[in-house]
Design goal:
The complex is a heterodimer of chains A (about 575) and B (about 80). Chain A is mainly alpha-helical. Chain A is built from 21 helices and 3 strands. In chain A, strand 1 and strand 2 form a beta hairpin. In chain A, helix 3 packs antiparallel against helix 16 and helix 12 runs antiparallel to helix 13. Chain B is built from 2 helices and 1 strand, in the order ααβ. The longest helix of chain B has 24 residues. Classes of the chains: A mainly alpha (about 575), B mainly alpha (about 80). At the A-B interface, helix 10, helix 14, helix 15, helix 18 and strand 3 of A face helix 1, helix 2 and strand 1 of B. Strand 3 of chain A pairs antiparallel with strand 1 of chain B, so a sheet runs across the interface.
Chain lengths: ~575, ~80
């Protein structure tokens, strides 16, 4: 102990969980984050575990305030997720969850780009099992799209790392900063690395994997998923691109656009997926502003978000587990038989909405104040809009449509004990961090001289929230509020799930028309060509075949395995 | 059996729903009135307006919902849209 890389503890626990059963496995799973946290507190400040790779030295363990904060956060998230999933009898999910959490730890303690890349891809590969484990056809297809996009992000990261290493002679993962594309190899590398992080971070138009896949995972799997992938990306962004002005605007857009989707979305876990992007938007914006206050705000909000978003996903997971349903149009009135789950959900809702005394209040406002201080007035107004909107869709809509609204007639049992314990712990942390933020503030990368509890802040935030609630009440009473309807809403995924396949089919159809025309003219040469086109472009042809995303993902994984093998040689 | 043993919810009656709404109205009034007495540090000129946050929150949510409703007409598809 003392200089063990945190990921090792989780990987060992994953291996042990694979060969044990019942209470013994539960004990191993629960012990891993506890032992890991003790190990973290003993880590020396010097770089540890150097590994030589050709001309470079890999740094598996870089410990500083930023990586330590995320390290503790991931231990906490893993512990909550494990407690929440103790009732599950599925070795795959337990093992995948541990490898996933361990890989997230490996990524945040990685001191160089190659190590980061390896854990980046392990995150993708381990997490996909949490979606697959749902066992439905929809989940399978969503998981393959998810895997393809996640692995692609890793491949772009690797390309960026290689170009970066050639340009600078170093593979160290530190501040990179966005350089103009025209400025040669270093510029290209910075854009590639930003794009890789941007995919995992859900930048607009790159965000779709999250809202596609997270709602298809198992009730417990989504709790794990919500904690790690996007927060590793936020960490990487805070490490490599603080003060990048582009991110201020990207973050503001991320905070804004998902709330419109969240209002009309029926699947309540997909509503939460959209609000996850909205919250990450605040973090991206803070990192873009780049002042000490803004980065502190972004990082502390990441910490709080993992807990309250985890709590919200847990409460919806409990509802899905007990009722088998998750659409707002099917639910309602569950508070009668699930009062504790309802209470915990409301604590999570109050926290994400940033009510005074709840955790969002002490972290989100730092980013908002920093935006004003740096004279980003429009961005501030956008974030304020997003703050009102998040209360509207995550703060009110989630608990209202699941637990109140019209009575669905369902009377499910209260959630299992382990789920209640996990939700209770998460709720307690939300209230603790909200009421006594100093412990969290003490862990932030920069010294904090920010006072969240001023009369003005409490008052203005209360005004914003109460009048948002008033708007909800008024819209409901007047019948203007859109009802929960069965159906899906198309988003950026439409481009690759509908538009591109249609284009391919359109080309094929044109080929067939050409073939028929040629046949009528009886031209031998044309006939041959048309036969060729029909063969490749016709309904059964090579071009028209719908290729399973699975085979693409498989090839990507194979390539990746080769890459990793080579990088370890 | 179903009706008799059913759990009576606290928010079943129209009356209780009305009192929840009344509590909300009172809270809204209170935070508006309090605004007249608290001196706030102002970073943005709009913030100086008493009740700015209240107005912004209300208007933002109404706009959000009405725009989202219109978006539904463009974005909404049948549940099996991609399966077909």
């Amino acid at each position: 102990m003392g200089d063990t890389a945190p990921f090792l503890i989780f990987y060992i626990a994953a291996a042990l969980a694979g060969v044990t059963r019942g209470h013994l496995r539960a004990a191993i799973l629960l012990a891993a984050p506890v032992i890991g946290a003790v190990n973290l507190s003993l880590l020396p400040d010097a770089p540890g575990m150097p590994v030589a790779l050709m001309d470079f030295t890999l740094e598996l363990l870089r410990v500083d305030r930023l990586s330590l904060l995320f390290g503790y956060l991931f231990h906490l998230a893993a512990f909550l997720g494990i407690v929440f999933s103790l009732h599950v009898r599925d070795t795959t999910q337990h093992v995948a969850g541990m490898i996933y959490a361990g890989s997230a730890l490996g990524a945040v303690f990685a001191g160089d780009l190659i190590t980061l890349f390896v854990f980046w891809e392990l995150l993708a590969i381990s997490s996909v099992f949490l979606i697959l484990a749902r066992g439905t056809g929809r989940a399978y297809r969503a998981s393959m799209r998810y895997l393809a996009i996640q692995v692609l992000s890793g491949v772009i990261l690797l390309a960026g790392a290689v170009v970066h290493a050639r340009a600078t002679g170093s593979i160290a993962f530190g501040y990179i900063g966005l350089k103009p594309l025209g400025s040669g190899a270093e510029g290209l590398a910075s854009w590639l690395i930003l794009a890789a992080i941007g995919i995992k971070c859900c930048f607009p138009f790159l965000h779709n994997w999250l809202t596609d896949a997270y709602p298809e995972a198992t009730p417990t799997g989504t709790v794990f998923l919500s904690a790690f992938t996007t927060k590793v990306a936020v960490y990487a962004l805070a490490r490599a691109f603080p003060g990048t002005e582009l991110l201020v605007y990207v973050g503001a857009v991320m905070a804004m656009f998902p709330i419109f989707f969240a209002v009309i979305e029926n699947d309540l876990r997909r509503v939460l997926a959209y609000s996850l992007i909205n919250q990450v938007g605040f973090m991206v914006c803070g990192i873009g502003i780049g002042t000490a206050l803004a980065v502190n705000g972004a990082v502390s909000h990441a910490f709080n978000d993992v807990v309250f978003k985890g709590l919200l996903f847990m409460s919806m997971g409990a509802v899905l587990y007990r009722t088998g349903r998750i659409n707002g149009s099917d639910l309602g009135g569950l508070y009668k038989s699930m009062p504790l789950t309802t209470t915990f959900c409301i604590v999570g809702a109050a926290s994400i909405s940033a009510f005074p005394l709840f955790s969002g209040f002490v972290s989100k406002s730092m980013v908002m104040v920093a935006a004003l201080e740096e004279h980003h007035s429009l961005v501030w107004l956008a974030l304020l809009f997003a703050s009102a909107g998040v209360f509207h869709h995550a703060g009110i809509k989630i608990p209202y449509f699941a637990f109140f609204a019209h009575d669905s007639g369902m009377r499910p049992k209260e959630a299992p004990l382990n789920m209640l314990v996990a939700m209770g712990l998460a709720a307690a942390i939300c209230i603790f961090n909200g009421s006594y933020p100093w412990l969290l503030y003490g862990m932030l990368p920069f010294p904090v001289n920010y006072e969240p509890y001023t009369a003005a802040h409490v008052l203005t935030q209360s005004q914003l929230l109460f009048f948002s609630a008033l708007a909800f009440a008024w819209l409901q009473l007047s019948g203007l509020y859109p009802p929960e309807l069965r159906g899906i809403n198309i988003d950026a995924e439409w481009v690759y799930r509908r538009l591109l396949p249609r284009c391919v089919r359109g080309v094929a159809a044109a080929g067939i028309r050409l073939a028929t025309a040629a046949a009528r003219k009886g031209h031998a040469g044309m006939l041959w060509m048309s036969g060729w086109v029909a063969h490749h472009g016709g309904p059964q042809g090579t071009l028209a075949r719908t290729r399973p995303t699975g085979s693409m993902a498989l090839w990507m994984t194979a390539l990746l395995a080769l890459f990793m093998l080579l990088s370890f040689l | 059996m179903a009706e008799d043993s059913d759990i009576k919810g606290r928010f079943d009656s129209a009356e209780s729903r009305r009192s929840v709404r009344k509590a909300l109205y009172v809270l809204c009034a209170l935070v508006l009135i309090a605004d007249l007495f608290v001196r706030r540090h102002v970073d943005h000129p709009w913030e100086a307006l008493p009740g700015f946050y209240a107005l912004y929150g209300f208007v933002a949510c109404v706009i959000l919902v009405l725009v989202a409703k219109e978006l539904r007409k463009v974005l909404m598809r049948a549940e099996d849209y991609y399966d077909g």
